[in-house]
Design goal:
The protein has 336 residues and is mostly beta strands. The protein is built from one helix and 27 strands.
C-alpha cells in the first residue's frame, strides 16, 4: 500500500499485483559551521535518462537508479539570548537579504515577587520588544532586562509615588500617618514597622527609607493611646496629652511648689482621679488604661509656719512689754 513506510509488505496474490518501492530523499535542512551555513532550497531527482522525477525538500521516487541534486543557499547565523527569540527560536541560519524577526518577552514574571522587565537591545539601544532586521551577515541581538521586586504595603501606609514594582537596588520611602484612628478619647497610633513579618522595634519613624534588594511586604504594629486631661489649683498643669496604654503619667505641675499667699507654701503631693477619687501620692504615678482627668493634689508645708510662729511669739511679748511700760509712765505722770 502507498505510504506503508515498511521495507516489507504483504500483498494478496489472488490477482495481478504491481508492487513498487517508493523512496524519499532526505537532505539536511542546514549545514553550518560557526557563523556561516547553507540552507536547503530543494532537491531534484533525475532518472537514468536525465528526466526530472520529483522536486522538493523531500522528493520521492520509485524508479532506480536515480541522480539527486540538492540545492543550497548561503546563510548566516542569527542568535539571541534568554527570554528572546529570532524567527521563533533561540538561533537560526537565515539566508542573505531575508528578514530576521527578533522578539523579546516584555515582562518575565517569576511568580515569587520578582520579575524581569525588558529595557532595550544591547547592541543598538533600541527599546522596542520586536526588531525586524535584514540579513546581510551574522547577527546577534541581546535583550537587556532590569530585575524588579514587588513591594506590598499595608494601608494606610503607602509607597512614595504609589509604585508596586521597584528596580532592584533602588531606595524607596514609605510613609504612614502617626494616628491610624481616633474616637472618644481613644486612638490607635503607629508604633513601629514590620518588614517581611519581622517587627523592627527601632523603626519607629512614620517615614521608612529602605533599599529594595528582595520582595518586600511592609506592615506595621500599633499601640493604643488614651487622652488624659490635667487640672491644678496652683501653678499650671501640662496640656491635655495622649498616653500609651499601660504607661505611667510621668508629669507634674509647674512649679511643683507655690507660695499662695506667703507665708503659706503648698507642695505638689500627687494626682487624684476625678472619676474615681483615687489619689496617687507623689512620686507614685497613675498608670493609664483609659481616658481620664486628673486633678493635682497639694499639701501645705508646715515648716514655714513653724518658723513664722516662733517669731510671732517674740513679737507679741515685745508689744505687751512696750505697752505695759508706756502705761506705767503715764500713771507716774498723773500721780505728779
Amino acid at each position: 500500500p502507498t505510504g506503508a513506510g515498511f521495507p516489507y509488505v504483504a500483498v494478496d496474490v489472488q490477482k495481478p499485483v504491481v508492487v513498487k518501492a517508493v523512496y524519499r530523499v532526505e537532505a539536511p535542512a542546514v549545514v553550518s559551521e560557526g557563523d556561516y551555513g547553507i540552507n536547503l532550497v530543494d532537491a531534484v531527482v533525475y532518472d537514468a535518462f536525465g528526466n526530472i522525477v520529483d522536486v522538493g525538500r523531500s522528493p520521492k521516487f520509485s524508479a532506480y537508479p536515480v541522480n539527486v541534486v540538492a540545492r543550497y543557499k548561503p546563510s548566516y547565523l542569527m542568535s539571541t539570548s534568554a527570554w528572546a527569540t529570532v524567527n521563533g527560536t533561540s538561533k537560526t541560519y537565515a539566508e542573505y537579504m531575508t528578514k530576521a524577526v527578533f522578539r523579546a518577552e516584555p515582562v518575565v514574571d517569576l511568580r515569587n515577587g520578582t520579575r524581569y522587565v525588558f529595557v532595550k537591545w544591547a547592541e543598538i539601544e533600541d527599546t522596542n520588544t520586536v526588531l525586524v532586521e535584514t540579513v546581510t551577515g551574522p547577527l546577534r541581538r541581546t535583550p537587556v532586562y532590569v530585575r524588579q521586586h514587588r513591594v506590598v504595603v499595608a494601608p494606610p501606609a503607602q509607597v512614595e509615588g504609589n509604585i508596586t514594582w521597584v528596580d532592584a537596588g533602588k531606595t524607596i520611602r514609605i510613609t504612614i500617618p502617626s494616628v491610624i484612628s481616633e474616637q472618644a478619647g481613644v486612638r490607635v497610633a503607629f508604633k513601629n514597622w514590620v518588614i517581611n513579618g519581622v517587627p523592627n522595634a527601632t523603626a519607629r519613624s512614620t517615614t521608612l527609607t529602605i533599599r529594595v534588594d528582595r520582595p518586600l511586604n511592609i506592615t506595621y504594629q500599633t499601640k493604643k493611646q488614651y487622652q488624659v486631661s490635667l487640672t491644678t489649683r496652683y501653678g499650671s498643669a501640662p496640656p491635655t496629652m495622649w498616653v500609651d496604654e499601660g504607661n505611667a503619667l510621668g508629669v507634674v505641675p509647674t512649679p511643683a511648689d507655690v507660695w499662695s499667699p506667703p507665708p503659706l507654701r503648698f507642695v505638689f503631693a500627687g494626682w487624684r482621679d476625678v472619676a474615681t477619687g483615687v489619689v496617687y501620692n507623689y512620686p507614685q504615678m497613675p498608670y493609664v488604661y483609659g481616658p481620664a482627668t486628673y486633678e493635682a493634689v497639694w499639701s501645705l508645708d508646715p515648716l514655714p509656719l513653724v518658723a513664722i510662729g516662733g517669731a510671732a511669739g517674740v513679737a507679741v511679748f515685745l508689744v505687751w512689754f512696750l505697752r505695759r511700760r508706756r502705761l506705767r509712765m503715764m500713771m507716774a505722770e498723773i500721780a505728779e
